[in-house]
């Protein structure tokens, strides 16, 4: 191999693009791109982690509809806007203790994390005022 060819292989952007194109063609050809889902529960909430090889953060979508959380990604061809392959689609029914207004999604170290905080409890009982209509 020539020294010029070796530099091409060391180019991280080239490697990222070629891996992306290979993954897209593999998926369109009937292959499978592995997507891993891990759910961890903690005292104050839960975290859904999704790892999908070579899927850029902007290709993930997180949609909340009432208590249904849908996570999906579509692999879009960089060569043509008409070529796309669904990579992942999963819907979760959220339990009532999840504070829907505080859900957040972050992409970190090649992994999408959807953080589901639970309602904070004051631990003290509170009397509810009865309104007269």
UniProtKB/TrEMBL annotation:
* Annotated InterPro entries: A-crystallin/Hsp20_dom, HSP20-like_chaperone
Q: List, for all copies, the residue spans of the domain called SHSP.
A: 27-133
PROSITE patterns to which the protein is assigned, alphabetical: SHSP
Family that this chain belongs to: Belongs to the small heat shock protein (HSP20) family.
Q: What name does UniProt use for this protein? A: Hsp20/alpha crystallin family protein
């Amino acid at each position: 191999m020539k020294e010029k060819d070796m530099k091409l292989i060391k180019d991280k952007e080239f490697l990222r693009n070629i891996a992306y194109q290979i993954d897209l063609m593999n998926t369109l050809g009937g292959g499978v791109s592995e997507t891993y889902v891990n759910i961890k529960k903690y005292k104050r909430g839960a975290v859904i982690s999704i790892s999908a090889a070579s899927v850029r953060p902007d290709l993930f979508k997180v949609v909340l509809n009432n208590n249904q959380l849908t996570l999906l990604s579509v692999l879009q061809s960089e060569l043509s806007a008409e070529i796309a392959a669904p990579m992942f689609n999963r819907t979760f029914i959220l339990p009532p203790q999840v504070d829907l207004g505080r859900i957040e999604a972050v992409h970190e170290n090649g992994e999408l994390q959807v953080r589901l905080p639970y309602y904070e409890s004051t631990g003290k009982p509170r009397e509810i005022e009865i309104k007269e209509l």
